[in-house]
């Protein structure tokens, strides 16, 4: 697993003696305070980039971990986030850091490189960097080898990838806390079972090789794994990623494909909006194309598994409501 940095180290002896000195407690007030509130004074401290990975870590670590996401607001963009002094201290004091990688959260890559905490990088662990179809490195877990076109750092929208991430987290927690190794791996296995159930639902989506266009490449992995193919022009995605308007001729091309029925599904990032996005939404509705909104971050009060379940259901419902001839142009 290429993205797991640094060798595993056992839980430090100092963790067991830290409670003896108030001064030392003061140095780790945030993490130790959170652990004390939950009755877990010896819990491992994990810092993640977003609440998505925080939720996965909680699934695997249970009560043995205290998880602190750096970004916990949907208003903050990891691409442009600037680390604070508090973030630096949190990462420096962490036992484990879980980040996305692939340029999505470069600030966290920098912070992790400056410390000595173990690191799980989801992008590298997933095997989805570039047009990858590599099998999972985990025994007993077969990666389906979906050929995602090009690099797409939004790997949390790939259920198989998150299985690999959960396994990686379990491995690192087990190295830090050998006594809890069995529990961590059992939790990761239970998480994998629930992901497998979602993957089965995804396999039953009536995609019929339908084409989709995404206003942002957030949910591309999920849609491709459902059996759809991405017809979003490269120039369209590049403009969106660079924060510029889509060139008029490219926008017109997408509009025509929606109106002609060649593209059967429009995937929209609900957290970003523009006049061009609204125009495409109107075209999709006028053509009776499927229309699904996705979010880039975990909705408040929702677990990762619940979130993905909702996304899979939304895609299935949208495609199931299409007219019977919808898959015709895409199959040509």
What's the helix and strand layout?
Blueprint: E1 4-5, H1 14-17, H2 22-27, H3 29-37, E2 44-50, H4 51-61, E3 65-71, H5 85-93, E4 96-99, H6 106-114, E5 118-121, H7 122-126, H8 159-176, H9 181-203, E6 211-214, H10 220-225, E7 229-230, H11 234-241, H12 248-260, E8 265-269, H13 275-286, E9 290-294, H14 304-320, H15 328-331
Parallel strand pairs: 2-3, 2-4, 4-5, 6-7, 6-8, 8-9
Antiparallel strand pairs: 1-5
Tell me what the CATH architecture of the largest domain is. Answer: 3-Layer(aba) Sandwich
- Strand fraction band? 5-15%
| Major sheet: arrangement of strands | 1-5-4-2-3
CATH superfamily of the largest domain: Nitrogenase molybdenum iron protein domain
Structure annotation, total helices: 15
Uncertain ranges: 1-39, 131-149, 325-332
Specify the overall morphology: globular
Q: What's the structural domain tally?
A: 2
The CATH topology name of the largest domain reads Rossmann fold
CATH class of the largest domain: Alpha Beta
Structural class: alpha/beta
The strand count comes to 9
């Amino acid at each position: 697993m290429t993205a797991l940095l640094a060798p595993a180290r056992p839980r430090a002896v100092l963790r067991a003696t830290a409670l003896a000195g108030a001064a030392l407690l003061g140095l780790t007030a945030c993490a130790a305070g959170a652990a004390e509130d939950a009755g877990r004074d010896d819990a491992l401290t994990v810092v993640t980039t977003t609440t998505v990975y925080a939720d996965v870590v909680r699934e695997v670590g249970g009560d043995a971990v205290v998880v602190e996401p750096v970004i916990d607001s949907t208003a903050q963009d990891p691409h442009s986030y600037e680390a604070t002094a508090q973030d630096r201290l949190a990462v420096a004091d962490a036992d484990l850091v879980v980040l996305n990688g692939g340029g999505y959260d470069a600030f966290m890559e920098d912070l992790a490189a400056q410390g000595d905490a173990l690191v799980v990088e989801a992008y590298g662990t997933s095997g989805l960097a570039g047009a990858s179809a590599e099998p999972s490195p985990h025994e007993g877990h077969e990666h389906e080898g979906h050929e995602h076109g090009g690099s797409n750092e939004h790997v949390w929208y790939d259920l198989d990838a998150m299985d690999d991430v959960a396994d990686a987290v379990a491995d690192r927690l087990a190295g830090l806390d050998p006594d809890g190794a069995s529990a961590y791996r059992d939790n990761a296995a239970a998480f994998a079972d629930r992901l497998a159930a979602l993957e089965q639902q995804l396999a039953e989506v009536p995609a019929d090789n339908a084409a989709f266009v995404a206003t942002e490449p957030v949910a591309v992995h999920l849609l491709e794994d459902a059996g759809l193919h991405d017809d979003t022009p490269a120039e369209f995605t590049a403009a969106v990623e660079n924060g510029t308007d889509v060139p008029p001729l490219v926008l017109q091309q997408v509009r025509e494909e929606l109106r002609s029925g060649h593209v059967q599904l429009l995937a929209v990032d609900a957290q970003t909006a523009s006049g061009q996005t609204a125009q495409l939404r109107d075209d999709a509705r006028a053509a009776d194309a499927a229309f699904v909104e996705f979010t880039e971050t975990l909705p408040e009060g929702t677990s990762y598994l619940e979130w993905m379940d909702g996304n899979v259901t939304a895609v299935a419902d949208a495609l199931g409501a299409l007219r019977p001839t919808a898959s015709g142009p895409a199959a040509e």
